[in-house]
């Protein structure tokens, strides 16, 4: 498991007294909702300070972690928000938002800064927020590319000609730097090498985090268009206009529409003059093929379902626009987090009640499986309907097939007990 312990344990006392630092606000009164929404971009040092203040104010609800370092040595900061960040409840789903992997696409970065404060400031005051935080382990990463952001220029609607800012400090596009399930390039895996070899610091940190934490749902926030793009991004073998469908195509469309339908501009499909997207969603490869993208990596290499959200026609609009972007995206951001609670979840145990790690959950008719955690937990996002499901694990007899009905808005609980396969045990002696 990746060590992502709490960092930045101290902060100057006067920060607590004034509650306002370089343009961001920590409410000291019991005001509801959005007093913190101000026209300002939070840069790296400010982000460190803000996250620390939130942890100090909400020590049971918030924890700041670093999943690694950028090329220039900046921490890849994440704020965890949950009812009890000291210990995740059994079967509580983990969800993440990652923004700013292209450093010059800044709207998503600031939206996650707003979202963190919104969830924490309104916990215990707003019923919906309280329910979400009580039942979901939420991770917010405002910037996967902090080096690129610091090189970018506010007000620039397009990337620079040399792509500085968009790319990381080594001039690599991080959203082309992941292993691709369809294209096995010779430099991806050398004989005897690691899947991590030759990749950027930021990519290695993200791959390791994804592989070692049981995320159920994920959102990747970008800019330059207004649309929800769903997997696959690659596999069409053409520059555009041919779909590359995943086994969970209908589920991904639903997740994309969850965001788009609740976004007043995205759902129109024509928020930007140069693009038209039916219903505000599109298959990634149909739009344009991306080889080595993070969205496909999540689905192909972990249990997580990720959608890419393009949030603004202008990549780095002036800060005066940020309150507007919050209003446009607030409902979508929250509604999407709530989708971690659809489908089926449960535990896989042996006949002694002990958890079985790395058991496989198989939904018949959908060629995409999920696996259990070391605590025997699993989550399988599914649309409403009736499914046949079973569990299997090495050294155990497969479970019986269970017919389960999934309803809208809440998970169905299905637990499995597997019996040890004594024949296989003897064969190993």
Automatic annotation (TrEMBL):
Signal peptide: none annotated. Keywords: Carboxypeptidase, Glycoprotein, Hydrolase, Membrane, Metal-binding, Protease, Transmembrane, Transmembrane helix, Zinc. Its cofactor is Zn(2+). Gene3D superfamilies: Carboxypeptidase-like, regulatory domain, Zn peptidases. Residues 40-340 form the Peptidase M14 domain. CDD domains: M14_CPD_I, Peptidase_M14NE-CP-C_like. GO terms for molecular function: metallocarboxypeptidase activity; zinc ion binding. PROSITE patterns: CARBOXYPEPT_ZN_1, CARBOXYPEPT_ZN_2, PEPTIDASE_M14. The chain crosses the membrane at residues 6-26. The active site is at 310 (proton donor/acceptor). This is Peptidase M14 domain-containing protein.
């Amino acid at each position: 498991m990746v060590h992502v312990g709490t960092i930045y344990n101290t902060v100057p006392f006067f920060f607590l007294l004034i509650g306002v630092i370089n343009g961001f606000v920590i409410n000291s009164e019991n005001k509801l909702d959005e007093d913190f929404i101000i026209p300002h971009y939070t840069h790296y040092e400010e982000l460190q300070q803000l996250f620390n203040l939130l942890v100090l104010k909400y020590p049971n609800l918030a924890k700041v972690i670093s999943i690694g370092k950028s090329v220039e040595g900046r921490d890849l900061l994440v704020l965890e928000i949950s009812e009890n960040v000291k210990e995740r409840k059994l079967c509580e789903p983990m969800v993440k938002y990652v923004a700013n992997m292209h450093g010059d696409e800044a709207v998503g970065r600031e939206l996650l800064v707003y979202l963190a404060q919104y969830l924490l400031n309104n916990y215990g005051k707003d019923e919906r927020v309280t329910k979400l935080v009580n039942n979901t382990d939420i991770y917010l990463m405002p910037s996967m590319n902090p080096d690129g952001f610091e090189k970018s220029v506010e007000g620039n609607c397009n990337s620079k000609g040399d792509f500085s800012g968009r790319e990381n400090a080594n001039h690599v596009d991080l959203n082309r730097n992941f292993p691709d399930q369809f294209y096995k390039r010779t430099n991806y895996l050398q004989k005897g090498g690691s899947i991590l070899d030759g990749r950027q610091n930021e990519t290695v940190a993200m791959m390791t985090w994804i592989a070692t934490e049981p995320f159920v749902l994920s959102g990747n926030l970008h800019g330059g268009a207004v649309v929800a793009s769903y997997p696959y991004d690659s596999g069409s073998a053409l520059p555009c206009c041919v779909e590359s469908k995943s086994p969970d195509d209908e589920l991904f469309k639903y997740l994309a529409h969850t965001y788009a339908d609740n976004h007043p501009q995205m759902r129109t499909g024509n928020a930007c003059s140069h693009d038209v997207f039916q219903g505000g969603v599109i298959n990634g490869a149909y739009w344009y093929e991306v080889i080595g993208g993070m969205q496909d990596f999540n689905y192909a290499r972990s249990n997580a379902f990720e959608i890419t959200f393009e949030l603004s026609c202008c990549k780095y609009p002036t800060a005066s626009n940020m309150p507007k972007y919050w209003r446009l995206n607030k409902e979508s951001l929250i509604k999407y987090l709530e989708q971690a609670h659809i489908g089926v979840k449960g535990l896989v145990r042996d006949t002694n009640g002990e958890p079985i790690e790395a058991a496989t959950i198989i939904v018949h008719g959908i060629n995409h499986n999920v696996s259990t955690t070391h605590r025997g937990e699993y989550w399988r996002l599914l649309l409403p309907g009736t499914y046949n499901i079973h569990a299997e694990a090495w050294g155990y007899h497969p479970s019986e097939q269970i017919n389960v009905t999934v309803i809208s808005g809440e998970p169905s609980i299905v637990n499995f007990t597997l019996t040890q396969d004594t024949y296989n045990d003897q064969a190993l002696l």
